[in-house]
Amino acid sequence: MSKYQTKQVKKYGCTVIAVLFTLVYLFPLYWMVITSFKTKEEIFSAVPTFWPSHFSFDAYITQFTVHDGISMFSYLKNSMIIAVGATLISTVLATFAAYGLARYAMKRKQMLILILTVTQMLPMVMFLAPMLQTFNKLGITGSYASVILFDALFSIPMSIIILRPYFTSVPKELEEAAIVDGCNRFNCFYKVILPNAYPGIFACASFAFMAAWGDLMASMTFLTDGDKLPMTVMMYKSMGRYGVNWNSLMATATMVIIPIIVLFLIMRKSLVSGLTSGSVKG
C-alpha cells in the first residue's frame, strides 16, 4: 500500500470515527425530539420505537395552555429577560476588564488571572448560598435582577479569559497613532480596539446567553414569584410527584433548545473564530 493510499485510509477512518461519535452525541437530542411527538402509550410500550408510529402534537398544544395561572409565553418572556440582561452585563464588564488586564501593568496580574481560571472549576451550587445572603441584604431577592446578576457574574471570568488575548494581540502602536490623530482614550478603545475583538466578544456573548437561558438552579433559588419563573422551571414542573409526563417534558425541552440552536446557526462562524483565535493569541 502506497503512502497516498495509507493517508486516504487514515483520513476516511478518522471521518468514520468522527461521524460515529457525533451520532452517539446527538442521539439523546434526537430521542428527546421524537419522544415529544409520541403518545403516552407508545412511550411506555415494551418495545421502544425509534420513530413515532403516529405523530401527536398534544404535548405541544398542552404547553400553550395556562399552567398554574401562567402561560407558556410568560415563561418564555422571563427567560428572554434573564438571558439578555445577563448577556449584556457580562459582555460589557468582561470587555472592559479584559482590556484593562491586557493593556495596563498591575501587581499580581498573573495571580488574578489564575483566580479567574479557578473560579470556572468550581460548581455553581457553591455560590448559591452566599449570593442568596447578599441579595437578601440588597433587597433584590425575588426579582429579575438577582438571577441576572448571578448568571452574569458566573459568565464574566470565562469571558475575560477569552477576550484578554484579543486585546493583547492589538499593537499598542495603533492606539498611540489614534491618540496622536486626536482620539481620546474612549474613542480609541471604541474605534480601534473593539473592531479587532468582535469575534471574541460575539463568542462570549453567545456563551453567556446560552448559560443564562439554560439556568435552573439560580431561578429556583432566587425567584419566589411564579410570574417571574423562566422556561427551565416550566420544564422542571413537568416532573410530577407521582410520575413524569415524558411527552410534555420532552416538548418543553425541545422548545427550550430551539433559541440556542437558532443562535448557534446564526453565530457559528463567530463562535468558531472567537474560540480558535482566542486560543492562539497573546
From TrEMBL:
PROSITE patterns: ABC_TM1 (PS50928). One of its GO terms (biological process) is transmembrane transport. InterPro entries: BP-dep_ABC_trans_perm (IPR050901), MetI-like (IPR000515), MetI-like_sf (IPR035906). The chain crosses the membrane at residues 12-33, 80-99, 111-132, 144-163, 201-224, 244-266. Its main location: membrane. Coiled coil: none annotated. It is a multi-pass membrane protein. Residues 76-267 form the ABC transmembrane type-1 domain. It is found in: Cell membrane. It comes from the Bacteria. GO terms for cellular component: plasma membrane. It holds the Pfam family BPD_transp_1. The keyword Transport applies. Keywords: Cell membrane, Membrane, Transmembrane, Transmembrane helix, Transport. PANTHER family: INNER MEMBRANE ABC TRANSPORTER PERMEASE PROTEIN YCJP, MALTOSE TRANSPORT SYSTEM PERMEASE-RELATED. Belongs to the binding-protein-dependent transport system permease family. This is Carbohydrate ABC transporter membrane protein 2 (CUT1 family). It comes from Faecalicatena orotica.
